């Protein structure tokens, strides 16, 4: 009987919730979900309503009114209260550990790679022109040099990760 009632009431509930959602400031699916929950609670305590269609219309309007009242009373936070804008201690420690491991691997690279990678990883966010001037190489050779250094770094880190 419950499945028949749900199948019968679903189109009506969708139409009623759609009609009330905009005016109440609620999502249609939220209204539908609240009414289905109310119906389940009623079935558990009082059994099925005598007039399911009328009950459903009243329940949708009641949920829409509740939603309007809630929207008037509740005010959004200016900022997320739980978000302090930073990482938690665990994430900060893990990030610092990864950064240390990366910089240690960069220092073990051959040739000019340590200085090039250090410049690319710099918090100053240097441009290619600034990096080329700092390292005394042409700006056009930075791209190929960077690719070679990243390849070396990738191989070095792959071996280290596999060893762990």
Walkthrough of the structure:
- The chain is 73% helix and 0% strand.
- With 164 residues, it is mostly helical.
- α1 packs parallel to α3, α2 packs across α3 (52-73) and α5 (113-120) crosses α7 (142-163).
- The chain is elongated.
- 14% of the residues are buried.
Number of strands: 0
Separate helix tally: 7
Mean pLDDT, to the nearest integer, reads: 86
Helix content: over 70%
Shape by Cα distribution: elongated
Straight-line N-to-C gap: 60 Å
Structural class: mainly alpha
Q: What percent strand?
A: under 5%
SSE layout and pairings?
Blueprint: H1 2-24, H2 28-45, H3 52-73, H4 89-107, H5 113-120, H6 128-135, H7 142-163
Key attributes of the depicted protein:
single chain; 164 residues; mainly alpha
In short:
The chain has helices at residues 2-24, 28-45, 52-73, 89-107, 113-120, 128-135, 142-163. The protein has 164 residues and is an all-alpha fold.
């Amino acid at each position: 009987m419950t499945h028949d009632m749900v199948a019968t009431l679903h189109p009506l509930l969708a139409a009623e919730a759609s009609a009330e959602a905009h005016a109440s400031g609620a999502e249609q699916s939220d209204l539908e979900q609240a009414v289905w929950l109310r119906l389940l609670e009623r079935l558990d305590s009082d059994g099925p309503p005598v007039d399911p269609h009328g009950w459903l219309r009243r329940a949708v309007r009641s949920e829409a009114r509740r939603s309007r009242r809630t929207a008037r009373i509740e005010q959004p936070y200016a900022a997320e209260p739980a978000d302090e804008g930073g990482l938690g201690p665990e994430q900060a420690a893990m990030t610092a550990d990864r950064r240390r491991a990366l910089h240690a691997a960069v220092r073990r690279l051959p040739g000019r790679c340590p200085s090039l990678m250090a410049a690319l990883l710099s918090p100053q966010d240097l441009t290619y022109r600034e990096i080329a001037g700092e390292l005394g190489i042409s700006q056009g050779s930075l791209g190929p040099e960077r690719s070679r250094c990243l390849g070396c770094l990738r191989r070095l880190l792959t071996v280290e990760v596999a060893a762990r």
